[in-house]
Amino acid sequence: MSLSNYGVLKGRPIDRRLGNGSRPHYQVHVVDEDTDYRIAINVKSKLSPSELLFIVDESLQHPITEGLEDLPHGFTDILRQPGGQAFDYIRGNLFDPGKMVPLPHDVPGPDNDLNEKIDHLIRRALGDSSALVYAFGERWGPENSKDRYFGFRPGNGIHNIHMNQGNTPQFAKDNGVWQDGALLIHFPDVAQWIGVFLAFQSQCWHTDDRTGDAISPCDIWPGPEDPVPATDPTGSAMRIVAALINPPDADRGHETVTLLNVSAAQVDLSGWNLADRNKKREPLSDIIIQPGDTVRIRLTGRHAQLSNKGGIISLLDPSGIKVHGVSYTEAQVQRQGWSLQF
Question: How far is the C-alpha of 166 from the C-alpha of 207, rounded, in Å?
């Protein structure tokens, strides 16, 4: 199973409501040229712990934003595959999951809960006539009734604006790859993209590449009783720290990726792979990297390739699980011969 009607809703925000009640969702009223929509954003989980994981990137630079401005206003279906505009928190290298923090939806005091964090961004968009929101998730409607929050007819909108894979069995029917939800806000006058990403603490960060179902080992976020903070839910010892994407010579056979071993033990990279935006894999072999050392890997040009138009680079362990990933845009690799640091 997976979401039905996955895609992106693009429009101008004109109103909002804070999430409250037993199943609180932050609500945004969005319009295109002739239709009203509602974006329903979870701010509290049904499962314990109830606080959602939250991260906002106020200077989002990712190839997924390229082409969004050309989309028509309203809802657009998206193909659930790599290399396009579908979101996947695990495979798309959108952000560092270790930087997500759990936030309650409503607590006393200013700017300290999830409602207020989202509201700060939406109120800024409401005050900028050029701002647009892009909500990725599952479409619903049109309904045979008016919208329950904003009163427009017919009721119509988008929800599941969060990670949609690695769910517990109760919600496994929604699992799938390349169908995660997110909220992007674009301020064209200042050339700024803001990304808001949400996940449930009960979700697994290792999922099947075909179904999106949780697989073993299932690294979920540590709860408040756990002694070890959630600095990295993937538990990876390896990091991608740099890449030569636009070499001075022909790209094929001259692109490189630099890896760093951040752990206190040596790592044998035999059986590991580097993967590009289209999931082509470059196999690694006969590489042992000592604690604290780096290794520069030259891509052969026969497998993974780093597009100068923007892309992602993922490091996969021998079982195919992604242990680290980065992304880059076309603008970041314009200087030929320069390595990009992540």
Answer: 6
Provide the residue ranges of all domains of the chain, joining segments of one domain with +.
6-200, 238-341
Would you place residue 235 in the very low, low, confident or very high pLDDT band (cuts 50, 70, 90)?
Answer: low
* CA-to-CA dists, residue 218 to 31, 49, 93, 181, 233, angstroms: 40, 17, 19, 21, 9
Per residue in 72-86, pLDDT (tens digit) is 999 999 999 998 999
CATH class of 238-341: mainly beta
Of 318, 244, 246, 312, nearest to 284 by C-alpha is 318
Q: How far apart are CA 237 and CA 252, in angstroms?
A: 29
Rounded to an integer, what distance in angstroms lies between the CA atom of residue 79 and that of residue 290? 41
Dihedral-angle region of residue 21 (phi above 0 means left; psi in -120 to 50 means alpha; beta otherwise): left
Residue entry with tokens 């993209």: 193
| Predicted pLDDT of residue 252 | 85
Find the mean pLDDT for residues 99-104: 94
Mean pLDDT to the nearest integer, 115-131: 98
**How many residues make up the chain in this entry?**
342
pTM of the model as a whole: 0.87
CB atoms near residue 240 (< 10 Å): 20
Residue 215: the pLDDT is 87
Q: What percent of the chain has pLDDT over 70?
A: 94
Asked if the peptide bond before residue 142 counts as cis, ω within 30 degrees of 0, the response is yes
Residues with Cβ within 8 Å of 302's Cβ and at least 6 positions away in sequence, in order, are none
pLDDT band of residue 249 (cuts 50, 70, 90) is confident
Contact 163, 181 (CB under 8 A): yes
Contact 74, 32 (CB under 8 A): yes
